Amino acid sequence: MTRISAVVNAIQSCRNSSSENSLTVTLLLDLDNTLLKNEMGVFLPAYFRSLQKGLSPLVPEEIMLPVFLEAVQEMMGKEHIDRTLLDVFYDYFCKKTGAPRHEINRLADSYYKSAYQQLKTGTTVDPGAQQAVRIFVERGYSLVVATNPLFPRIAIEHRVQWAELPVENGHFDLITSSEVFHFPKPYPAYYAEILGYLGWPDGPVVMIGNDPLNDVEGAGQLGLATYLVKNNDLEPAATDRKGSGKIEAAPAWIDESDPESLLPNFRTPAAILAIYKSTAAVLDSYVRFCNETAWNHRNGSEWTAREVLFHLKDVERQVNLPRVQSLIEQTNPFISGVDTDAWYEDGFPKMGSPRSILDDFLDSRLETIRLLSGLDDEDWLRPARHAIFGPTDILEIAYIMARHDQLHMRQFSELLSIV
Fold first, then answer.
1. CA–CA dist 77, 184 (Å, integer)
2. pLDDT digits (tens, 9 = 90+) for 3-34
3. What are 354-413's pLDDT values in tens digits?
4. 78 near 72, Cβ under 8 Å?
5. Alpha carbons 215 and 187: distance in angstroms, whole number
6. Which own/partner contact pairs does 255-260 have at CB distance under 8 Å and 24+ positions apart?
């Protein structure tokens, strides 16, 4: 059985059961005021003042801050599937200031290596966070620094080190930053992008953070369990799939929780759309940062990464998008099964560069997202008939498409690496 044929079996099994057998636990850990005590009302003004000075050789201080804040709003204002957050920032900031990107980038690198580190004095190590992380590491959990990726990697690494949590020893499988990530909090696609880089791990996934909107609501929209870090006793308790309390109490809360309550639920329109968006975003980063050798290396897999990407492009254009169009335009349509393996029995055609393949994929994927984003709750339950699964509806077929994404993103995580 090929990897691609196995998709049907995987989907059929998950159709009847939402639980996973794997014991892997993945924890997404917010940084500021979760792992590191950092009063943002103090930190941000100090940061802005020092950054103004750092960029002053190219950008007058009187215009730097207003334009900087406008650029940050551009980063946060909408989802950019094919542009990293750093690209969004620089595109706006450099246009408004007239400063060349490479020169701004040079000054910013120098700033983060030197003056930025003086801001450490306004932060405090949290022994409770250190204790929790130590327990998580001992248990072998997969850990992610899931901070809002509005800063470059170097700035985030400094703050992790200020929390006295070492970056270099493999504690964290991923640190989210503006160079790689396409979505900020609280978009559910941000959380989906994290899981995409990790290869959509099985087992429980929990977001732990102190912000009810950015951490709890955002992750909850993707279907993740959450734990709200309460830094004072006046904050309200959490309910349902949510926990709350001091950061040092999080390990005990995980122990006391029903394991199935910590499993993700991706069977909602919001989660499905977030998965679609994250697939495009993660692939964009792979195309940006992985060289030609990596794209053509098999590593024991039946297909190279380039071939998997070509397959996703074909499926999106010839299967997914036409299905979505018929589901929306027709009443109770019949959806035929398609053996996509047969397309490549004689090998793959001339494929072009990974970028050109991805661009073709994006053309179709963005239209799929546009069509499904226009549905209301009732529309998602419109019936259809599937050749393999029988009576179904738009929601289930869209979920099957999302599962197909996840299975192939797991292949990419085995074949390529950028984090």
1. 9
2. 333 333 433 333 333 334 446 899 999 999 99
3. 999 999 999 999 999 999 999 999 999 999 999 988 999 999 999 999 999 999 999 999
4. no
5. 10
6. 257/225, 259/204, 260/18, 260/19
